[in-house]
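#dry-run=false #mode=assembly
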Amino acid sequence: MSSSVVKPVRQVRRRTGFAARTDWWAYAMIAPAFIGLAALYLWPFLSTFLKSFMNVPVFGPGEFNGVDNYTKLIGDDAFWRALGNTALYTGIVLLGIPLAIVFAALIQQVSRGRAVYRVLFFLPVVTLPVAIGMVWRFILNGDFGLLNWVFSLVGIPGQYWVADDRFTIYAFAVVGIWMGLGVNLIILGAGLQNIPVELYEASSLDGANRVRQFFSITLPLLSPTIFFVTVLTTISALQMFDLVFIMLGSVNNTAIDGSKTIVYLFYEAAFVQFKQGFAATIAIVLLVIIMAVTALQFRLQKKWVIYD
Amino acid sequence: MTRRESGTKRRASRRSGASAGQWRIHLILVISVALMVVPFVWEILTAFKTNNEVSSLPPTLFPANPTTAAFETFFATVPFWMQFGVSAASLVMRVIGQVLVAALAGYAFARLTFPGRNVLFVLFLLMLMVPSQLFLIGQFDLMKGLGLLNTLPALAIPGMFSAFGTFLLRQAFLTMPKEYEEAARLDGAGTLRTFWSVMLPMARSMIAALAVLTSLYSWNDLLWPLIVSPAGDNRPLTVGLASMQGQFGTDYPTLMAGALICTLPLVIVFIALQRQFFAGIASSGLKG
Amino acid sequence: MHKKWLTAAAAVATVGLLAACSTPSEAPSDEPVTITYQVWAGTQTPAMQEIVDAFEEENPNITVELQELPWPQYWSTLQTSAAGGTAPDAFWMLAQQIKPYAEGKQLLDITDAIEAEGVDLANYPQAVLDLYDQGDGAIYGLPKDFDTNAIWYNKALFDAAGVDYPTDSWTWEDFRTAAKELTNAEAGVWGVAAPIDYQGGYYNSIFQAGGQVISDDGKTAELDTPEAIAGIKFWTDLMADGSSPTLQQLSDTEAETQFEQGKIAMYLSGAYWALKLYDNAEIRPNIDVAPLPIGEQRATVTSGIANVGYVGTKHPDEVAKFLIFASGETAANIQAKAGAVLPAFKGTEQTWMDAMPEFTNLQVFIDAIEYAVPLPVQGNAAEWQGLQTEFLTPAWNGQESVEDAARKYTEAIDKVLAEG
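#status=ok
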């Protein structure tokens, strides 16, 4: 990230003449974006931060209560359960990346029908998450769902995938992988295009087969893109909300308590129970977690990402 | 440029070299794609069944007596066209706003010199990394303060100012050759003129990608509309569809018919503009 | 962009000023006024529209917009909009939800209007009025309906299993035995549905066992008393017998839906399902209703929906007028005729029963008033009732003893009650 910030400066410095002067138009051009950013992102961020140290009742003004919300959150079983669920979900969804790499590589190999494959893999991305939740909820229904029926044909016992909290997270994760495949495929596909053909040609002359080429050329050269996709997938998985809301949202689903994610907990606290101070605390903790995980990934990348 | 060239070169070499193994790859891909689309196929088949057929065991693959009753129930109970209108109108507002705001700021960040540029830009980048849920309460308070709750602008405004668009278009302007700009300036065009008539047209493809991505987020957004516009006449389709689930509970044919109809518009747009979609996704990598 | 913002800001400011100026002025009663009325979606909507029409006819200057919300989003939406100052002018309220709204001063006090219109509170069931009494001397709304619980049952399933229909002298033992006999796992038929449902379910049996949910002073929970535990065991026993679908099955497909699908022989719930069941032509001839079984004593909880107004409304007089009308005799008769729900206004019960002539035993719900107890709604009821799945699921699934689950849940409720 930091390198991209520095780059334009270097370019500008290199230029001579009029461009070096301060261009006052710039402020006018940035003003709309900046005012919007300040009002809709910066200020809400600061107010959420403040509210995380406050007790804010449903109606009326709040009062500061120090770190009460934080200690309450840490002592709250529901929070740790949600954290565990979110971590499990994220972990499984990351398994979708190897899948996406394989499919991206396979699509790269075919000479015809690439567009069709890409479009079909991409369909879930352009489908309303609400609709996705509904369809899957139906497919995963324990009594008359398609999945249990298919399983029964091959002798696997069916389960209540979206009504039994031993299975709900796995159900979300399968749907999450299915939803994310299209995006990852496109990004990885673009990465594959950047790998010089000559490398493959040279190794073919050396007698390497496709599988070997995949591991010795494709994977290493694709590693920066894979890293990028991993970071993005992790961040969005840590923020998963829609699937819980739609797949378990019905009022008397007894699996809901064991299936909440962090953001669902936040939504519930903020907009169902209206404990906005507590909700703000959840959001801040989530931010810290995301930053920590992302930082960790950036550290670890040195071990496996190969930049040329 | 180089990217495109190497791509075509490789494609050519593969075609001549390794067509023998092609059918095997196709086989794997066709099976995988078939698995991918099962939910959609099931959705379509279910929409034409009756509720009794759906809840009977074992399930039937094809509707025994295909009926459009589910679609009729859907249109009779859900104000589809109104909600479609809300979704479409807020999408248009959001896309136009985002493109304008982002193009102006993106250009300034990429090409103009002014004190405080780097500090400002870092601020934009930082906001990009904060999870969007963190802004919800404050944005809600702001919309409430402006008296905009349950209105179209409330749905569209936050999305117009997301730092993401600025970042994306800044990258696009950075990659453009400076010669055009300098020529325009030498001809006496001012900053705004240069931006508007020279640079903006050159960023067409990236703007299209941004527009398409913004549309995608706007059309699919659930959490924000659920908070600012959960009831009344300004509910978008996502909220309407979520409400429908509460109303029809286990009437799966109606739910599937509704899901199908609400999804269709964007799918059609996607198939028509797939190149812009893919370009947008590939260049940004940001997910909805 | 700048200009747009300025114009928008100016417009907002102007509207604000106008609103500020117009509120204090005495609004003449014939000025055209529009108010909104929010209800949750269901079989009652047509009757509500009829009530609105009747009100508009009497008050040509007032237009009432009926807004429907689905049940799962009703309360979060209401809270969000009340906090945002955009709540509907009039809306349905439940006793277990009213407290935060009353304490937060979000509800329109209509005491004066009730006096002025000469409303006789004796026309409403005292138990239901009490539920909405916040002890602050104010009346925020009047009940539009009330409900008691009974056994809805499917005669066809009783006939198929050769079991006698429920009688009004059935004991818990009779009920449990019948539920077992009615269950036919192979055919996918269960004797009863036993979800974790406070209103139609375990509160009733707790009172039948001689226990209570919350102490008399309203400060502590009493779910861990031997009587209350017996009341909860009534349900967990049915689960343990295998006489009910599992909680998972009841989560995938709700009890009421399964009852309509003919998979469940007995469904213990309120009078409010009558019209929905009556409207289902396939199942209507098979449906009948009997009183709840007797434990140590007869008991059912009773509650009802109240029409209340939003304190922030621009037209408090018109809203008060509408609220009184919507809970009044004319409206009660409209509800009754439509069969929508059992009206709270006394003397309209017969009309309600006549609306569904094929259901011959609806009198059961009205007779139940004699032994009805108000639904326990002390403190922030919605919050502690919301904890029920978390604490009681292990007992229902047999993973934990009822005693342990009840003790933990009692502690959790005490904590909520202590918070006020």
